[in-house]
């Protein structure tokens, strides 16, 4: 089950609706806008395409120009341009608002102008700092030499806007202060720090500067790598901008703004450990790469990725720390429904080193990534199966079982259990028993599954009859002929009768949010014209469903009447039950 972020829920969409959002929606054509992200083809009055939020072969993603809304009948997501952009780029509503207002040429008036201005200011300061660092880089042979020595090509340095923070106490700060920037703002943006004696000091000094772009491509922070000859060991080799309202490390993936198209195309992402690994892999031709910046992989990162990829290839440092980090990442990624592989560099420490020596090696190593269970076999199982017979051997076997028992897919789990049996000579049945014991011994760790919020995110079940009626509405709408309801209006619930009247009147919207949501679904579903045969089937199905519901109600009535000894009620219920049509092609109720 895919994890749906809470903002697709109806009540939040309503809460966001305002005169400004309506104005923006009126100015931007949803079809034109979405075409920037996907291929849409006409389908009746609507448009359809392959859903960017789940993987499918035939289109179930519908867009209604009439209602300026979209819905996917495959995964159930839907909304307007705001929700689309928020989901697609993994951004908050405020950021989507800013981006769309800019596109629509709408000036924003804010309920909280101070906060909005502050975010805008943070973007400006980071952008200006980036340009300052780039200019400094162009004038610093020492920084250029370091990058060249590490194997970074000029084009990559330009594409990712790499810069240089001069080794001065207040080079950047003075530059900003001379432009009239308030010292407080520089501190808040994390570009300057205050010393114990209250002096302003540049946060980044003598460092190669890697700007961190958000998923829309705006600079929101930096990672600075100390130049080795300046490293006195008293500061970190790498330091990062602090978290700000526009920079959240647990959500941002380094390089994603550049690699998301390749990730979407391949449905697979390669996760490396840091900026250098990212840049060198990218330069070697691996375009579907990302790095977590200044933090370990989080469930938020994975949720972002899952809209584009099913497979995650992990490439961590070829040492114990890297191997342990890989294990944690595998568990998290598997819990988030990824198929996980591990790529290991044999003769090199990491992707950056390997790429510098031989770009081909990087491509080959990623292509030869092994499935996570195989990674565990190689890590834990001794090459000599005889070594499994003692206690230490058993512990190793248990370590592997511990990892296999949580594989979500039964088919995959079965495959790997058999594989483990084949390699160890231990029977599958024994392995299963052992795995069972481990399951009992270790309580499940729900925290890694992303918290409790997801429990409430299961879509509410829709009664089958409602679904059939919805489809009948869509069929009627596509033919613009509501005659099919003439002989079965009795089966509609009161709100459905209301919807029928609204659609008959030619309107496609309702002021009642609950009705409007259903109308939206119907309008989007009406993309393809239904045949008479389909409509006939729907009517038959509706009747069957009605009969089924009625039968259940009557059975309950019989039981109640028996219990209370009400003979009259019992007789009436039994009589109706006896005369209830079978529903198998019996259309008496419909004529
Ligand atoms: Zn979908």
Shape: globular
Bound molecules: zinc ion
How many angstroms separate the termini? 43 Å
Indicate the low-confidence ranges by residue numbers. 1-15, 442-461, 585-591
Percent of sequence in beta strands? 5-15%
Q: What is the topology, as strand order, of the major beta sheet?
A: 12-14-13-15-16-17
Largest sheet: 6 strands, mixed
- Our Rg estimate from Cα atoms comes to 30 Å
Please give the share of residues in helix.
Answer: 40-55%
Mean pLDDT, all residues: 83
Question: Strand tally, please?
Answer: 17
Structural class: alpha+beta
| Oligomeric state, counting identical vs distinct chains | single chain
Number of helices: 25
What can you see in these coordinates?
This protein has 591 residues and is of the alpha+beta class. It has 25 helices and 17 strands. The longest helix is centred in the last third of the chain and has 33 residues, at 532-564. The protein is globular and about 95 Å long. The model is unreliable at 1-15, 442-461 and 585-591 (pLDDT under 50). The structure holds zinc ion (ZN).
Question: Can you lay out the helices and strands and say which pair or pack?
Answer:
Elements: H1 10-16, H2 19-27, H3 30-35, E1 41-43, E2 46-49, E3 61-64, E4 69-72, E5 78-79, H4 81-89, H5 93-104, H6 113-138, H7 141-150, H8 154-159, E6 163-165, H9 171-178, H10 183-188, E7 192-194, E8 200-202, E9 207-213, E10 219-226, E11 238-240, E12 253-254, H11 256-266, E13 268-272, H12 275-283, E14 289-292, H13 299-306, E15 311-315, H14 320-335, E16 339-342, H15 351-357, H16 359-367, E17 370-371, H17 372-380, H18 391-404, H19 410-424, H20 428-441, H21 464-479, H22 494-504, H23 513-525, H24 532-564, H25 567-579
Parallel strand pairs: 13-14, 13-15, 15-16
Antiparallel strand pairs: 1-2, 2-3, 3-4, 4-5, 6-9, 7-8, 9-10, 10-11, 12-14, 16-17
Helix pairs in contact: 2-5, 4-5, 12-15, 15-16, 17-18, 18-20, 21-23, 21-24, 24-25
The structure holds zinc ion.
